[in-house]
Amino acid sequence: MDSNQDAYVNELVQLVSGLLHFTWAWIRPPSGRVSDELEQLKGLIETNTPLNYGMAAWQWKLDNLGEYNSRLVSFKINELIIERPGQPHGTMKNNYIPQKIGIFVWRALRGRILTKVEFDKRGIDLDNILCPICNDSVETVEHTLITCKMAKDVWQAIYNWWESSPPNSSSLSDFFSGSRRRNLSRENKKIWQSIEWVTGYFIWKNRNLKVFRNDHWAYSKVASDIQVKTFEWMKNRSRHKAIDWIQWLTGPNTLSFPHYNSRDSG
Ligand SMILES: [Zn+2]
Question: Ligand 1 centroid to 133 CA: how many Å?
């Protein structure tokens, strides 16, 4: 609110007879909460600053070098708001895909991925809380992962691949619990669960691409990336090392694992 936004502290403060005098050039004078915050800042300067007329600077205590680093700040925000150390990830485990994806889905189900609405709920001001992909709806977790046009198109493609249609629902648990696929064999349910979770994760990655790089993939590219990545993971992480790409693309009908289905699929 000062017209000289790049001023150093020592340009605004003069020491006169042992007391600090501040000189401001307000565009509009501070009032209310801002005025309180200003008083607090002045208090901090009075009690903590040696004011040696060198270059005044704030130090970031988060970083050893004392330098601001936006990546570190977002990491810290994530740690403080999203991570709750010590809380178990419950049953969100599926060893056919990397653990971070299970953790992502677990967080999403609890509203702990940082959509704009979740930022807003935590008192962090944003210019707007609209979905960055469609700019058409408020960005809730459900919107991003399920009801956004982009998400819907990806889910539709993935469900087509698995010869079914998406739930007529915007409930996260309908999309991530695998519960609706009662017709699948036990082993194929586990594979389907991997695909559901990876789909949510890739939709989120596409959203982040838009937010952080102002770019995003078409739904068809997201869907084919999901097929490629889950195939790779299936070959490397599951017992189905012999699956071939054509079989994988053809969908659940060709994936029959009688040996595994007859007993615990792990
Ligand atoms: Zn949207």
Answer: 5
Q: Residue 21's Cα: distance from chain center in Å?
A: 45
By CB atoms closer than 10 A (0-12, 13-18, 19+), residue 259 is exposed
Name the residue type at position 136.
D
3-7, 133-137, 245-249: least confident range: 3-7
Query: In terms of residue numbers, what domain contains 43?
Result: 9-48
**Distance between Cα 119 and ligand 1 center (Å):** 16
Percentage above 90 pLDDT, the chain: 44
Per the confidence metrics, is the pTM higher than 0.90? no
CA of 145 to the centre of ligand 1 (A): 9
Instruction: Say whether both 33 and 115 belong to one domain.
Output: no
> Has residue 141 been placed in a domain?
yes
35 and 110 housed in the same domain? no
Encode pLDDT of 55-83 as tens digits: 555 555 555 555 555 656 665 555 555 44
Distance from the alpha carbon of residue 97 to the mean position of ligand 1, in angstroms:
27
Q: 22 and 151, same structural domain?
A: no
Q: With beta carbons less than 8 A apart as the criterion, state whether 196 and 178 touch.
A: yes
In this structure, which residues have their CB less than 5 angstroms from ion ligand 1?
Answer: 131, 133-134, 148
